[in-house]
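ok so I'm stuck.
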Amino acid sequence: DRSLHRPEDGVVLPDGRLVVADQVSGLRLLDADGSGRPFGRFAEAGYRHSPPEIVSTINGVTLEPSGTHILGADVFRGGIYRVNVATEAVERVYQHPFGVNMARGDRRGGIWFTQSTRNGPEHGERDLFRSVDVPTPDGALYYLPPASDGKVRVAVPAVEGLLFANGLALDEVRGLIYVAETLGKRVLRFRMDTATGRVTDRTTVFEGAHPDNLELDPHHRLWIALPVSSEIAVLDLASGKAERVFSLLTPEKEKVIATIEARTKDGVSWLELFGPALWDPAPGAMTGMILSPRDGTVYVTGLGNALIRLPR
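replied:
not stuck anymore, here's the structure
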């Protein structure tokens, strides 16, 4: 019914329920017919979206490995929220000085998160899109150690100097972490140590487009949202081969993209081109995807007011 508010990301819970980001309430639980309700008591944890004075938005939404909690990251104001799936109690587990794009928990209880740029809470939205418009190498990957005996948790940088750090995915079986560097037009892979929060062996596994959210599936494939070209790519990590599995790209859009590429190469403003001409007939820029268990439905997420449902 077009009632969603910036459903940038989401998860399918173990019981099959669909939860997506919602700028107004934090998260929203959706029924099969598209109706729904707020999910989680975000106001009790300090989350508030009351523009123009306070502009917040839950951006990255991930399920912890146990399946009992959801992590939601505020890309404008820097809060990382942890939601109990059973009780819907919400706790702000960390407050970063800059916006947090996405946060993922590991099996040890640590949290890995991306800082797209140094956008403080006072002007989080404005400064975020300023960095999109003219790339600034102040993106970073951080590690937040597990909670320990009531000690204050302090995040430490694992990688700095990125051009708009965005989506991330963890492969704990192989000890790998994947990070989308949107304005660097690549996906980076690192070997990670969840005991120390350190990463090594930086490698580029995908390049040539503007990656956003990332999802790993059980078949060792990395799903990559490409919002500028309105596509979703799937990278077979064993072979290194990527293919587009969903696309709204047209010759008209390719002309707009060519102009964007030329401007970004010269460091010239391009953000006025980031509009419906790039993503129609999608409800907004396509920024991610939600993968249902057992190779079920794929939901395309974005910055509009609805999802796109892709049955498989």
